[in-house]
Structures are given as structure tokens and as C-alpha cells.
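Long-time lurker, first post.

We've been arguing in lab meeting about whether zinc ion would sit comfortably in this protein at all. Half the group thinks yes, half thinks no, and nobody has a model to point at. So I'm putting the question to the forum: if I give you the sequence and the SMILES, can you give me back a predicted structure of the complex? Inputs are below. Any interpretation is welcome too.
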Amino acid sequence: DIPADFTLNENEQLLSFSSSNSNINQDDEDERIVGQESSDEGESETLEDTNINENLIDWSLFTDLINTEDHNKEFTFSSFEKHYTHFLLDLREGHLLPQGIIKSITSYFTTMLDALFKLIENQAIQSSTNPLISLVDIGKVILQIKNLIYDISKNDYQFLKRCTDYFGYTEPLKIELDDKNNCGYYVPIERSIQNLLNKPDVINYLIDNVNNNISQTKNDPDLMLTYRDGTAAKDNPSLKLHPNSFLIQLYSDGIGITNPLGPKKDKHKLTLYYFLLEDLPDFVKSMLQSIGLVGICPTKFLSIQTNRMKFFEPIIKDLNHLQTTGLVVQTFNGRLHFAFSLFAADNLASHEIGGFQQNFNSGQFCRLCHISYKFRLIPLTEISFLPRTVTTHGSYVQQAVNLFNTRPVAGVVGESPLSKLIAFHAIKSLPNDLMHDYAEGVCPLIVLAMLKEVSAKRLMTYNQIEQKIHTFSYGMNDQVNKPPTIRATHLTNNNIIGSASQKLCLFKLMPFIFHDVIDQLTNTLDIYTCLREIISYTYSIKFRKSWLMYFQSLTIRFQSLMAHHLPYLIIPKIHFVTEYLRTINANGPATRFWCMRFEAFTLAKRHQLRQCLMLSNKNYYNICTEITLLKPIQYSSLPIPVQRLLTENNINQNIFDECKIIYNKNVMMMRQSVFVERLVDVEEEPCFVSILYFLKIQNIWKAVVEHLQVIGFNETLWAYEIEFCKTFDLLDLDQLLHILPHGLDIYYVQGSAYVNVLSQEEIDGATLARLPYDEVRTLFPKLKDRVLFTEKRDLLIKQWNNIVNEQLDDGDILNQSSKQTFDTCTASQSTTSTQDLLNNPSLSSNNMNGDEFDAASNIDDEVNHDETDDLEEPHQNLPTDFAFSSLPEEIQVIIDDNEYPKANDYFLITQALLKALNISTTDANAANEWREAVKQKFKNERRLLQNTSAVVQKKKEKFGKSSGRFAKKSEALSAERKSDKIIYVSTIMDESDVEQLIITMNEGIENETIHNDE
Ligand SMILES: [Zn+2]
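Top reply:
Settle the argument with this. Predicted structure of the protein with zinc ion, as C-alpha cells:
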């Protein structure tokens, strides 16, 4: 059902609209208009249907019926009722409109009758002082109204004209592609953006969010929040010119138009191009109306190169004009500037847009590097591929053009249709996409491999697997993405069905659904776990530059494990997973530019009209707190601890409003869901809370939460084991969304409770430092806590500053690190020489297992056991009994005291390791990789240090088997690489093309000594 205020406000809109030619003053009505956009996108969209799609709706409804049936009879209230019922019946059964829409139409009608009366009243006042009006005059008014209504709905042109006049509707323009009348459409982007930014709320969200992001990264340069924080932004010509530009992302998606009764599915395919203002905050970015349509074209036309060029010509012209001249809007003094950042699409569309080959099963299928299909099975520990570079790319394009685009040259088939777009380059502007590469790519692939292993090991039959997935009870938050039943036939056909988010949900819950057999999946469990760790990075909203090297070692491990265990499943997307270091380093967190897929798709005109409906509202976005299942609750009926909590917080209310679900900033928050309240310590451990009540306290919704104690991280389940600790707290709703903007579920395995988190989110010392006093006061209402907090915080900041200072003393490490990351992925000789030392398995495992470190990290015997295989490695740099001669005193103290390490300790440990390994302490790459690796290790293991707690001890014994697994992660550090890595230089076209080969090799050599030319 449409909420009452939704229809009411719509009516007000209509009222002011329909009466704008008359004398009724509706100004104050307009002022009162608050947010009205319904949360139910689908409903309001179909509502449009009834308004605009004259082809589908029989408008004769409004003219014929009265005349034919009722004209001759006397018209009574009862016949009016009958007539109206007939009308509704026709809407319901004749046109199959849902009840919600019918209700909305009805309420429009009643408002229109009110308006009609006001018009008549007005007429009466004008014609005489006596409030009497002749039937003739009433007749005139009604006739005028009838003509008006008839005119508007007479044809599409008339309707659209009104939309243009009143609501800033921008009509899509035709692009003639050839003389056969084939065409596409585009929407002038400047007008769209102008309409959008003329809304005060939109411009405010944009500016606030940009400023917020920029000040965060200024305070903490290691942090990556947006495209601005990647290396690509430094070369972006538009950003160079105007660093304060808003970022414009483009993205494309294809849809199939099907006649539901017809035989062929997806018979007509359309490609749609959208723009998105990247700087909008996340909670509005995900809303459908944040996406503006740029162009639409039947997909088959775009497969021809000349058509592509023609189609994008006006779009590029528009975007370039916008980037060079900027915009002036009503809501902002001065000129706004814009910069194109990225183009997100699935791999096929990206290759089409980039002018790369569209075949992924041969030749050079990657748009970032020169990998060749035939080498995809070689573990990346043994080979690496040259990245594509701007200079060589130009010559490949030229060669492909000379060949009339008949065959690929090093994977390039021709010029990109966007090559004239300012700030676009084929090898830089088409990043990998999370949704396609992970959720729809490798995740279902690994799920399938795991299920196949379950079956191959005769742990379960396909039918039992089907049953198991079907009967699993999903948590409240995961319920939304519950995957469809996977049938035995799907498994036989290697096909996991469902949407991207459903596939990701299934992937996430695999260890819970199959917890009783998961330990026996010796082939696939390691791969799964490794992928989970990779995903915990790629799906982060914030990324750290210092994570990059460790992250890269994870992706290399993943690819190598695949090559070893599941070589037949090495599809190109496995390779793409290993490209995320480059992608993220250049463009910022991958979650900023993934393809969001919306359930409801609207075509060019429809999309524009929807936009226009939104624009007709005073606020473009309707960010309000919505509540469901509201009921009052007595103080006395709350549990005693909650009562005590309220009293402690000086709340003396006797009765509260209570509810089960709150939509806060577009996030559904439910009772019993788990949220991350904050992160603690250097390893950024989440502090979970579970929501007990939503209570309205002094007119503000607050959450009564119970703290959950983390007992340990179970790597097999890839989840935190938690315990309810019976301590309660009163929190603001926004505070719960600060770190992870959605709720989590608790799952029980063998009586223990677990929280399953997909990405690693973190808060940083700098944010803490800038926390203004007022916020501190709200966070910690009690003076004692506040003092404690401020003390701890100052201590933390001091340590943090020390580290930064020390780093600065060592030279500009941060700059170096961003430059050097490219170097290591090209595996140039100069870096491998130090890496070899690092990577030597015997070395890294042995010194980590040295006596001193055993005490600190509690590595259990299994590690030693696991590592014995590696000892056979013939090439050894150090004796097997190598130990540090001495440790820095500070570290020794920590180890002796079994304390948790602080940021500074990690820094010292890393420095000590580097020194011991004879690596320069200024080698930022090595330092970062080692620090993150050690940190990760502690993060997953250090809970085992809590041997003092009896509860923990008990739990550990109960679920003790998992503790042995942790150690395996340490191998992931770098232990797997061989010392001699091959640099693969691709053969270009055929062997005779020596000249090109020389250019490429020269570049390879340059890359080793000078840096990358990008
Ligand atoms: Zn590649």
C-alpha cells in the first residue's frame, strides 16, 4: 500500500500544477510539501505508467462511458457510485492495475474535485459579491477544466510539453546511425545535471561529501576513499585544471526486451548508458534516481564500429563541453566544474568500449596487461605479464586500424569510440567490475567447485545438497538476498542461478550451510578462505594504500591455488581477480565504481519522465526515517537491565514509542540485527552490538543495544564467534551505520554464535582525533568515560604521530609507495632481488617460527609440520636454525607481557624484520607487505592469547579444531614464489614483427629502472 502521506503530497503537486493557470494561490501549499517519494520504487514507477503511456492505456475511459450509458437517464448519487465502481473495475480487471495505484488515482480525483470547487468559488467571488454563481458560469468553469484535461492527455506530445514546461523534462534526442533509419537516443547531460543540482538537497549532499572525503584523506594520506585518492587522478586532465571538480562516472548495462508471450527470450537487446555523480554520499548513490540516463541504443547496432563512433559523438561533445566550461546552477554561487573519471561495465562491454578483442578464450584477453590465454594456467608465482602502456597501446591501435579492424593486434581491435573524450583512455578508464568479476564470476565458480567436491567425496548427493540449501534458515538481513533453490540439474549443468547479490549471499554462507562437512573439503576450502580474505578487501568502502602489497600476495596465492587444485576452472575472471591491485591503486576502492544493477529498468523516455517526477518534488531525495510496527511500551515492562540503563542515562520517560524496523538513511535496521559500533586496536577489530529495542527518547529514535564480545575469528567459517555479554548501551542510529552501513545476522553452529562479515571496514586514528568535543560528549555522556576516552585517544594520536614522523624522516615513503607498486607487479628484476629474499619459504617460515616469535604469536605446532615440505627447497639463504640475535627491547617487553601490540609495535617489528633480512627499511613496499601480513596474522590469532578467561577456554575446547587452521595464512605472506620469475613478453601478431617486439621489450626494461610511464 502507498503510505498516506505519499498520495497526499502527490495531490498537492497536482493541485499546484493544474491550477497554475488559474487564480488560486497555492504558494503556501508548496511550502508545506515535505518529502513524498515512496520507498516503494516499483509502485511509483507503475504509477507513471498510468499517466504517460498513452499507447497502453485506453484514454477513452474518460470520455465515452458517461455519454453512452447514462446520458438518457437521470443521474443520481447511486448511479454515480455505480459508474465510479465500473471505472475502478475496469482499471483493476481491464488494465490489471494494482490496488495501490487505484487508491492513488482515487485520491487524485478527490483532490481534483476540491480544486474544482475552489475554482468555482473563485469564479463566484469575481463575478459578484454574493457567493452565488449561475449554472451557466459553473458550466463554463467545468468546460474549461474538461478541455484542459483533454488537451494534456490528447497525445504524447502535449503531455511531454507540459512535463517540459512544469518539471524540466529533458527529451531524449535521436542519433541517426545510418541511412537505413537505424538510430539510438541520447539525453543532453548538461541539462540533466543542471536539473539535478538545482535541487538544494542534492548540491548539499555533494559538497558535504566531497569536503568530508577530502579532509579525511588529508588527515590520513594512507587512506583511499574515492577516485581522487588513486594514481589515475593525478593524470586526469580535467582534475588537473580544476581540482575541485565533481566526478562523473559513466556506466553501461544491457537489457533484453521480451514479449512475455513470445517464444524467444531477450530477442531485442538494448544497451543503456548512465551517468552517476560519484561524489554523492553512498546512502543516496544507491537510489535509482541518482542515475541519469545518457544514451540508449539497440545492442546489435553498436556491434558495428562506425555506428559506435556515431552514437558516442554527441555524448562526447556534451561531456567535453561540460568538462571544459562547467555549469552554473541556481543553488550555488560561482561555476561548478566536472571531470570524467571512469567507465564501469561488464567485461564484454568494457572491451567493446575500449576497442579490445571481444573474445576471452584466446589471445590477449586482458585490457590491463599482456597476458596470453595459453599462459593463464601458469601460477603467478612463476610468471608475470607486462602491463599495457599508453605508448604501445597507441601503436597497436594504429596497426589494427591499418588492418581495417579485421584481427586483433595484441588484443586490440581498433580505436575506442570514446578516445576523444577528455580524461578517457582505453587502458586506464575501464576498471574491473566487482559485481561481474566476483559476485557473478569467481564466487559462484568456487561455490560450484565446493558442491562438486562434496558430491565427489560422497559426503552428500546432489539431492541432499539441494535439500540442505533449501532448508537452511537465513538471517533476517540475509533473507533479502536468499538464493533460489539450487537443483540437482543446476549442479549437473554447472550453473548457479540467481541474481548477483543472491550468488554472493550463497557464497558468504557456504561454511554455515555446510558446516558439518566443510572441513573435509581439502581441495577447495583453502581456495574459498583465500577468496574470502580477498573479498574482505575488495568490498571495503575504505581502502588503505598500506594494504596493497599484502592484498596482491593474496590474489597471487588465489591464482596459484586455482592453478594447482582447479586448473580446469581457470577462466579469464580468475586472472581479472589478480588485476585488482592495479585497479584499486589507480582508481581507489573498487566499491566506488561497480555496476549497480537495479531491479526496475526504465527506457529512455520513461527514465526521463521518472526523473522529472522526482524533480517535481521540492527535495530530490527523500531521506527520512521511516518506521514500521510502532507501538507504545511502558517503562515498567522493559527488562530490568534496560530500565537501569535508561535511569543511568537520566531518562525519566514512563512510556516510549517502540518499533521493530527503522529505515534510517535508506538502511533497513531491524531488531536483533548486529551492527558494528566501532573498531578497536591497530588490527581494527570490530565491536559488535545487537539491537534489543528501538525506543523514541525525547522525540529521537535511539537503539538499546547489547554488546557482543568477540571470542575469536573462526577461519573455516570465516566469521567472528561472539558471545552476548549482558552489557547494554544506548546508541544513536547513525552511530550504528558509521562503519558498516548495513545489518548483519547471527548464525549458530553447534551452539556457538557467529557473525559473518564480508568486508573489512575500519576507522582510523585521524578520524578519532578530529572527533569534535560535542560528539565526544554525546558518545560518552558520563564524565568519567569521557575523560577516559580522551586520555586513550590522546595516547593513540601521540603514537600515531610518532610513526608518521619516523616515516617522514625516512623520506617520502607515501609517495614512493604509490609509485613503486606498479613496479612490483611487473616483477622487474630490481625488485625481485629483494623479494626473493623475502619470498624464500624456508626463511620466512623459519624466522617466524623462531623461539621469540612463538611466544608472541602462539603459532602452534601445525605450522612447523606444514612447513617441512618447503624445507626441501634447495636454495637457502639462511640456515634453518636461524634466529634473531636480539630483538628491540620494546618488542621483547611486549612478548614477555603477552600484551596486544600497538601501531608503533607493528612498526618496530616490521623494521626489525627488515633489518634482519637485510632489506632497506625505506623500502616502503616491503615494509607495508610485512606489516600488513604480521597484522593480519595477529588479528586472526591473538584472541588465543586470552587464555585467562575461563569462558574463552571452554569455548576453545569446544571448537578447538579450528585453531590449527589459522597458521596456514602465514604461508600466504609470500612463501610461495620461486626465485626466478619469468617476465612474459607477448609475441606480437607474428614473429616477423620484430620492431614491435623491440619496442615492447624496451618498455619492459624501462619499467625496471625508471618507473612506469603512466
Ligand atoms: Zn591482466
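For your lab meeting: The first helix runs from residue 4 to 18. Residues 89 and 832 are 76 Å apart (CA to CA). Whichever side wins, do check it experimentally.
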